[in-house]
## 1
Amino acid sequence: MTAKIIDGKKIAEEIRQEAKLEVAELVKQGIQPCLVVILVGENPASKAYVGSKVRACQETGIKSLKIEMASNASEAELMDEIDRLNADDTVHGILVQLPLPHHMDEERVTERISPAKDVDGFHPENVGKLSIGIDCLTPCTPSGIPELITRSGISMSGKHAVVIGRSNIVGKPMMNILVQKGAKANCTVTCCHSGTDHLANYTRQADILIAAIGVPEFVTSEMVKEGATVIDVGINRVEDPAHSRGYRLVGDVDFDDVKDTAGAITPVPGGVGPMTVAMLMKNTAKAARLIHNH
């Protein structure tokens, strides 16, 4: 039996429409949600990501501002820009596009953003609140995964979720989201990583398997329990001379191998990817609501 394909594009569009309604309601109350994205340097991938975020803001009714800084700008200059935005009451979300140039400390920069405007959900204060179950701004990619699962008609409560990967961007916040009480979580959670011995022994127990390791097509059918929900967070370029671009995009899951074992699976592209920007729109609306006590 071939797995149900979880349509990330469709679900992301639903969420963006919900965010659009939230924004329209805030605008009626005299609050114009505003997201500022800071781009340092000329990284082509970063420029593309920023462009997609700006377009999403336009479609959602969020005011967006893009601040571009030269790659040789100092860390102090970036900090000054963040301080200015923190103090600006008309700005509700601040996002510094990563990666930063090597001479800048990403951790220090992240900590400089006001937690109330940290729409990436990376500030230590928000990380701490998430871990103990206090409502806060949470990282966009892992926040979108329970939406993908539950909006596809799959129950999460009581399920065993196995996360492969322990990054601060996906793996760790994913664990903290899944373990909380609530219909879109309430899982028993296992985290596996590069130090895990006999990895497949754990992954084969998963009702929900989330792969976020950045290794192309790492997860095979031998690692997946029959009927499991498989969420592929990875996006990797693999050389392919037969492709017009000379490469193709694949996830951390060997999709063709796993799709006949899994009960449901996300494709790459078109699975988790579209959710990240959709959840950013939701976070920006939420930040505006919280800042103005609505």
## 2
Amino acid sequence: MPDIALLADALADAESSARPIAQLSDSTSLSLSDAYDVQLFGVLRRVRAGDPVVGLKLGFTSIEKARQMGVHDVILGVLTASRDLGAGSSVSLGSMIHPRIEPELAFKLGPDVAALDLTDPRVDLLDHVTHVAAAVELIDSRYRDFRFTVEDVVADNTSAARFQVGEWVPFDTVRERVGDLSVTLRASGEEVRSGSTHAILGDPLEAVRAVQRLAVRYGHRLPASAVILAGAATAALPMAAATVYEATVEGVGAVMVQAEV
């Protein structure tokens, strides 16, 4: 039986010091359930320290990426308040190990979701989506060489580092076409990534249902007005200092973040 607290401590220390560690799987036999226990232990410690959960995120929503990792399902991570950069903010790359940025689509849920019984088959989380927005997620594996197994990355809270969400627009205005909107990522004005929301599970609405399913399976709760990051619409891009990154989702909006040393 792995020492859940010890593994969570090792990941927390790696993040706070911005120094990578060996993959947990190199020295520990870790099941996927164990990995989620490590993740949840770390999250609950942040919550007790005054850093509340504000939402959930998905990883491996790209079918191609999932095949590369040899997995057949998405993975779930947790967003806490301290990870939210806020509009117009900058980020210090020196506080991370190997930061990368991904353009995403974000969903906002209503204030009633905290009271929902997600195990009730009559509850469909899509019915509680109120808004969507363009978003970026900054990922930063705490492992050496950005290399990991599925269990490693789940324990590491799916490499979650920072995120930023653009202006929210009503969900109903884009719901019928949200499954195939063009997505671009620019670095200081130059287009460096392009894709479509179709890359997110074939339809990003499926990401909302996946969050509900995995939250029930692994014991995560959704706070009122939770944010869901549906997953990357393009491959991640290594970040460089003194660069302004802008992600745009067709018909939804844009979001910018300034990277500093």
